[in-house]
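The protein record filed here.
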Amino acid sequence: TPSVTATPTEVPTPTPSPTPLPAARIDLGEQDLFLGNFEDARKQYLEAQSAAQDDETRAAALIGSARSVYLERNYGAAISQLESVLQTYPSSPQAPYAWFYLAQAYDDSLQYALAAQAYGKYIELGPGLLNGYVYEYQGDAFANAGEMVNAATAYQMALEHYHPGSPEWIRLKQADALLAANDFTNAVILY
């Protein structure tokens, strides 16, 4: 009778997967934010922040974490985190983004004057192609704060920075702001 002898087969040993670099964790956090997984995004950002070797990555991770809190509509926590980032890393290349998100959090928490100031700081530090939109946001914040002359000025800047052309709705917002500021002559010209 033939006999069968069992020969052991080698079982491969699993190799541990490498821990993602902080920049990769930030990218994973961005993906989680996009998918609406705010808690997972915050975890990725905080792990990136604790493993980061440079201030720019730390600032980016902390801004991402604040964005996840903001998207959960916890505006107070987002404001606190973004203010902390700006205190700790005021000259970071990430600072303009922190100012923009801070402005949005102020706006959504009805702190319109602070929102207008933060939008202005974003424009000052990070001018670019989107400035027309940001000036419009700033004008809206000034208008909501009751600062109609500043709102009209911001809307004028929005008109000058929009690409391509000048959207008529901004001209109407500017006219409304001038009317509310009792500048009837210039309001009528724009209407």
About this structure: The chain has a mean pLDDT of 88. The chain has ten helices and no strands. The CA atoms of residues 23 and 40 lie 16 Å apart. The radius of gyration is 25 Å.
